[in-house]
Design brief:
The structure holds three protein chains of three kinds.
Chain A lengths: L1 H29 L3 H4 L6 H10 L6 H13 L13 H36 L4 H15 L2 H15 L12 E2 L4 E2 L4 H34 L2 H8 L4 H23 L1 H14 L5 H10 L3 H29 L1 H4 L7
Antiparallel strand pairs in A: 1-2
Chain B lengths: L7 H11 L2 H26 L1 H4 L40 H37 L1 H16 L2 H15 L5 H33 L2 H8 L4 H38 L10 H11 L6 H28 L5
Helix pairs in contact in B: 2-4, 2-11, 4-5, 4-7, 4-9, 4-11, 5-7, 6-7, 6-9, 7-9, 8-9, 9-10, 9-11, 10-11
Chain C lengths: L4 E14 L2 E14 L3 E5 L6 H9 L7 E9 L2 E2 L5 H7 L4 E4 L3 H4 L6 H12 L5 H14 L5 H4 L9 H13 L5 E5 L7 H18 L2 E6 L2 H7 L2 E6 L2 E7 H6 L4 H8 L39 H5 L5 E3 L2 E3 L14
Parallel strand pairs in C: 3-8, 3-9, 6-7, 7-8
Antiparallel strand pairs in C: 1-2, 1-4, 4-5, 9-10, 10-12, 11-12
Helix pairs in contact in C: 4-5, 5-7, 7-8
The chains are: A mainly alpha, B mainly alpha, C alpha/beta.
Chain lengths: ~325, ~300, ~325
């Protein structure tokens, strides 16, 4: 097990190096680092002088290690557009995105699992069919359209929810939170639903089909034959066995969650990283794009690592090297 | 006495129960509706220049006096503009029809490109095996974790940084199609690779080698029929996803610009006017898009069940 | 034989409603099992043996249902129980052993967890440590070596035979009056089959538990059972003491079945075989279900269904029971 985890860490580091190369290529060759320091109207002599000064004439390998060294110290250079350190810009927006994603994913997983278990156990009930039909429509509606519809309904027509922004936030020094104020909490509702809906639908359908599959298995029949209570059979025995695929798919969905966060933040003008990244793409603000790429890569590796550990926690067959007694 | 697996009797029940005719009938009726709807969309996109009341790209014919008119049936509506007009006075119906051309065009081209790349890499990975296979399949895994939208965003920024003089209008199609193809080839590759691995060890491949034929050419003729079903299913579902991705990118402002609006661009434009009550600019393209995607998804589900019950 | 009847099944009929009409999978089956008795139920796949067992413990899968008949456990009706009453019956009064020990146990829990869970579900009065003690003694009873260490091992750490021992421990955990064992050895290696059967027999004898042993293996029946019921197309064609049914079968089907068993003494080197195969449930013939395959078919067999009547020391359902036929197999 330890060996396996060590190997995973090694693979993760390899992925980070690859992502780092892409980010460096983006930063160094697609963008022009000189632009971070001088305006576009600086003279060619000035540019040439700065190039030498900041080491752009050094061997590429040296420049690359320098970039990685700085990245490891959270230094990603200056944004062209904002004339501020990229790290500072990201740090300001990180809490907004994290809070939104946390609430959305929590809602999606809890509701998705509950609805999935319900529709899996009562496969022919009227309510199950309603949930499934609604989920098919939910999967076909693009995220941004759902966001717009929610805004139109609850903000424009009913005027019960704010249509954009985070509401009032409390600054804790290292973190700004919307959880502590009423306006902050109500501002979270619509974006969280928008972001979480797709994952909820996906989780629900996955848990449902897994439950249908597992409820047919022998050990469930045997649990019944032993006279166990329904609650124990459904949650202790059946649901626990659906966890592995749910963990896998939730981990795999990480990329989608990031993409959907960009969309949601755009629709609701949420002051998060997705919004910043989109603005960076539109204005070709390469340092921000490179940093964002590194961040995605890091989160990707981290989440895969967590998924691996969760496998071990859930499934004893992976934990023990199989030793069969005759 | 022959020992038959004791669940054989029960799985007979299972199959009887599962093939519920009422369900199948309802489902197929839904499929017929979806197929008709998709066909209508395809025709509308193809014939847009002929059936659209106006040409939305013809800026000369636009009049700001006609801007932001509600649909024809409301009090301020103009019967000339059935679904109303946008902020520049463009007829919404015509713009939707032309936008459909873009959406469906992006879908078709990106799916074809992804399928070609994916099938080719899948055959190579399966046939050559070893290190080549490992590299292709690792790449496929990474691709599957990355959504097309993220790839398109990075690609868009990169392209515009390298060629700052290109106009959004000109690069949009290429960037989006490339990003979608780059994202989607992996699914085809995995399916085709599996099928190739099966065929590779068949006798006829060995025989072909013995009589001096190029085995890969022979195999190709045998692999293709096997993968046609799954590839068609993947293509249908990817087509729906491609249309969604294009609309999303245009909505985010990195796809088709307002001068050449796709459905997503129209929704983006309309979104700015939602608060002032001009709902039609967003709503009609939105419905058009949602129905198209829903219809193609239903078709894809049906194809999957009809062609390959094992592919779930 | 002990006179106390534990299980009494009268006219049990199990039906599956389908679009093409109602299929009768178990048809008017009657038998009883006395205290401590082992009844073998034998038949081909699809003869309805497993469904009979499932009906008794209330595990029929919809749309299957008990359409007619009564099932009594010590005189108490247990068919038609539902919800909490059914749950209290399962495990506590009727235990069940399934065919495949590899899939009968939940892979995510230790065998100790699964034993303790079963014990404390039925004996909420027991303390946690008492339940654990019981679980341990059960594992020792079923012959798991180093039971104390194995209590918190996971199913995948046991071999197939050991897992089936755990399954038997689970079935006996709450001291049921009846155990239904549905092909308990079919999925096991031949070498461990006999051990498992011997274990089941010993444990049930010690506890005075009655057993309904479902199998298609006449060898297992011959070694283990007191009486045997032969099922064909959902009907009992013959039932009686095991020695008589094996050595002096009355029903032509049973005779054919015995002829299909290779004799070890090698006197007869040809296996006889019954022509044709058992009918599908949707096409059970009129009259005697066996008549299309029977050498002795007469017009009566085609027109009228035979009922179980006394034959030898048991009973058989055939129009042709006569002294000449009785004993043809010996």
């Amino acid at each position: 097990m330890i060996a396996f985890l060590l190997r995973r860490i090694g693979q993760g580091l390899l992925v980070m190096v690859a992502v780092g190369m892409m980010a460096f290529a983006l930063f160094r060759f697609v963008g022009d680092p000189v632009n971070q320091l001088v305006g576009p109207d600086a003279s060619e002599e000035d540019r040439e002088r700065i190039r030498v000064e900041i080491g752009l004439k050094d061997p590429v390998a040296l420049q690359f290690s320098r970039y990685i060294w700085r990245a490891a110290h959270l230094d990603f250079g200056f944004s062209y557009q904002f004339k501020q350190p990229v790290t500072k810009l990201i740090a300001e927006r990180l809490p907004a995105t994290m809070e939104l994603a946390f609430v959305a994913v929590s809602i999606a997983l809890v509701l998705g699992v509950l609805l999935g278990v319900y529709t899996g156990l009562h496969r022919d009930s009227f309510l199950s069919n309603v949930f499934l039909t609604v989920s098919l429509i939910g999967i076909s509606l693009p995220t941004f359209l759902i966001g717009i519809l929610l805004i139109f309904l609850f903000a424009v027509q009913l005027k019960v929810m704010p249509s954009f922004g985070r509401g009032q936030v409390v600054d804790l020094g290292f973190w700004t939170t919307g959880f502590l104020t009423a306006s902050g909490r109500s501002a979270l509702v619509l974006p969280a639903i928008t972001l979480g809906l797709f994952q909820m639908t996906l989780t629900m359908r996955l848990v449902r089909s897994e439950m249908l599959e597992i409820m047919r298995l022998d050990f469930i029949k045997f649990a019944r034959a032993r006279g166990l209570k329904n609650r124990a059979i459904h949650f202790g025995h059946a649901f626990k066995n659906t966890l592995i695929p749910v963990i896998t798919v939730t981990g795999l969905q990480f990329g989608t969650t990031i993409a959907f966060a960009i969309i949601t933040e755009t629709v609701f003008q949420w002051p998060g990283m997705g919004n910043l990244f989109l603005r960076a793409v539109q204005t070709v603000d390469i340092p921000i794009m490179a940093c964002y790429l590194m961040m995605i890569g890091f989160l990707f590796v981290l989440i895969n690592f967590i998924v691996d550990i969760l496998y071990f926690v859930v499934d004893p067959r992976l934990r023990h090297v199989t030793k069969v007694a005759l | 006495m022959t020992v038959v697996h004791p669940t054989a009797g029960r799985s007979l029940w299972r199959s009887l129960v599962d093939s519920d005719m009422l369900h199948a009938f309802l489902r197929s009726r839904l499929t017929v509706v979806a197929a008709l709807l998709t066909l209508t969309y395809l025709l509308a996109a193809l014939l847009a220049p002929l059936i659209a009341p106006t040409n939305p790209y013809d800026t000369a014919s636009l009049s700001l006096l006609d801007s932001s008119l509600p649909p024809a049936w409301s009090a301020q509506g103009d019967p000339k503009y059935l679904l109303g007009t946008d902020d520049q006075g463009r007829d919404i119906l015509s713009t939707i029809l032309y936008g459909l051309r873009i959406s469906i065009g992006v879908g078709v081209v990106s799916v074809a490109l992804a399928a070609m790349v994916g099938i080719a890499l899948g055959v190579v990975a399966g046939y050559v095996g070893g290190r080549v296979d490992a590299v292709i399949m690792r790449l496929a895994e990474v691709q599957l974790a990355f959504p097309a939208i993220l790839i398109a965003l990075f690609l868009d920024g990169t392209v515009r940084s390298i060629w700052p003089l290109l106009k959004q209008e000109d690069i949009a199609f290429t960037v989006i199609v490339a990003a979608l193809a780059l994202d989607n080839w992996a699914k085809y590759a995995r399916t085709v690779r599996g099928s190739t691995l099966v065929e590779k060890n068949r006798d006829y491949v060995q025989a072909a080698r013995v009589i001096g034929l190029r085995p890969i050419a022979i195999m190709w003729r045998h692999v293709l029929p096997n993968v046609l079903g799954p590839v068609l299913v993947i293509a249908t579902i990817n087509f729906a996803l491609a249309i969604l991705a294009e609309a999303t990118l245009s909505f985010l402002g990195v796809g088709f610009p307002p001068t050449k609006p796709s459905l997503g661009t129209l929704i983006r434009i309309g979104n700015n006017f939602l608060f002032s009550g001009e709902w039609w600019i967003t709503l009609f393209p939105g419905i058009t898009l949602a129905l198209l995607v829903l219809a193609v998804n239903i078709l894809g589900d049906w194809l999957r069940d009809a062609l390959n019950p094992r592919l779930r | 034989m002990s006179p106390e009847i534990v299980l009494d099944v009268r006219g049990l009929t199990v039906e599956f409603p389908t679009r093409n009409g109602i299929l009768t999978a178990v048809d008017n089956v009657s038998f009883s099992i006395a205290k401590g008795e082992i009844l073998g139920v034998v038949g081909e796949s699809g003869a309805g043996k497993s469904l009979t067992g499932a009906a008794i413990i209330g595990l029929l899968e919809p749309p299957g249902r008990v359409a007619k008949g009564e099932i009594r456990l010590k005189g108490e009706r247990i068919d038609g129980l539902a919800g909490e009453a059914l749950r209290r019956l399962r495990g506590r009064r009727v235990g069940m052993v399934f065919q495949d020990p590899l899939t009968s146990l939940n892979p995510l829990y230790t065998v100790g967890d699964q034993l303790i869970e079963t014990i404390s579900t039925h004996r909420p009065d027991l303390s946690a440590s008492a339940a654990r003690e019981r679980a341990l003694s059960l594992l020792i009873d079923v012959g798991i070596p180093a039971a104390k260490d194995r209590l918190f091992a996971y199913p995948h750490q046991f071999s197939g035979g050991m897992r089936q021992r755990v399954v038997i421990a689970l079935a006996l955990a709450a001291e049921p009056e009846l155990v239904i064992a549905d092909e308990p050895t079919t999925a096991l290696d031949v070498s461990v089959q006999a051990q498992i059967i011997a274990l089941l027999k010993r444990l049930c004898a010690e506890r005075g538990t009655s057993v309904m042993l479902i199998t298609h293996d006449m060898g297992v029946i011959a070694e283990t059972c007191d009486r045997v019921a032969v099922l064909y197309a959902g009907r009992i064609v013959e039932i009686g003491p095991v020695a008589d049914v094996i050595h002096r079968p009355c029903h032509p089907y049973t005779i054919g079945l015995m002829g299909a068993i290779p004799a070890l003494d090698g006197e007869e080197d040809r296996l006889t075989q019954i022509p044709g195969s058992m009918p599908r449930l949707s096409a059970i013939p009129q009259g005697c279900a066996f008549h299309p395959r029977c050498a002795r078919t007469s017009q009566t067999c085609i027109d009228e269904r035979p009922l179980l009547t006394a034959a030898g020391s048991g009973s058989a359902a055939c129009w042709h029971i006569d002294p000449a036929l009785t004993g043809a197999g010996s």
